[in-house]
Amino acid sequence: MRAVIQRVRDARVSVEGFVAGEIGAGLCVLLGVARGDGEEDAARLAGKVARLRVFPDEAGKFDRSLADTGGAALVVSQFTLVADTAKGNRPSFSDAAPPEQAEPLVERFCAELRALGVPVETGVFGARMAVELVNDGPVTIVLDV
Q1: Catalytic residue of the set 6, 18, 69, 80
Q2: Residue 96: which region, alpha, beta or left (left: phi > 0; alpha: psi -120 to 50)?
Q3: 2-23 pLDDT, tens per residue?
Q4: Residue 77: its pLDDT value, please?
């Protein structure tokens, strides 16, 4: 699993002009599921995201997490994060998990975040989505499990 995490002031994801998920301050999580990923990967990554210290403390240092700040997560499934660009100019997505494997793992990731006390909003799995966000910092972190 791979996640691109952006600290945001606010973020929303829309499908066909309708807002599917929206958050205020927190993290926008673009989530890619690879072949061979499992439930333990989803749980481990969710724990890492919930505890990732990318929010400033009173001294301005990165020392607070979503769990500490009460921030929310906007989780957007994005199979293109698993692209292989080693050969040629057209990305290969053969390492991406098929939808019947990926969707339950995205749902498990979200459930794990919620179990850790993080409010979660999501996009629509498999849909063409428009993601809007105000990156705060900017802060962008890539996590692989």
Answers
A1: 80
A2: beta
A3: 999 999 999 999 999 999 999 9
A4: 97
Considering the candidates 6, 18, 55, 79, report the single residue annotated as catalytic. 79
Two tokens, residue 77: 């499934």
Annotate the chain with DSSP letters as a single string.
-EEEEEEEEEEEEEETTEEEEEESSEEEEEEE-BTT--HHHHHHHHHHHHH---EE-TTSSEEE-HHHHT-EEEEEE-GGGG-B-SSSSSPB-TTBPPHHHHHHHHHHHHHHHHHTT--EEE--TTS--EEEEEEEEEEEEEEE-
On the CB side of 86, how many CA atoms lie within 13 Å of its CA? 5
Of 6, 55, 78, 109, catalytic = 78
At residue 101, the pLDDT reads 97
Low-confidence ranges of the chain (pLDDT < 50): none
- 78 catalytically annotated: yes
What pLDDT does 35 receive?
A: 97
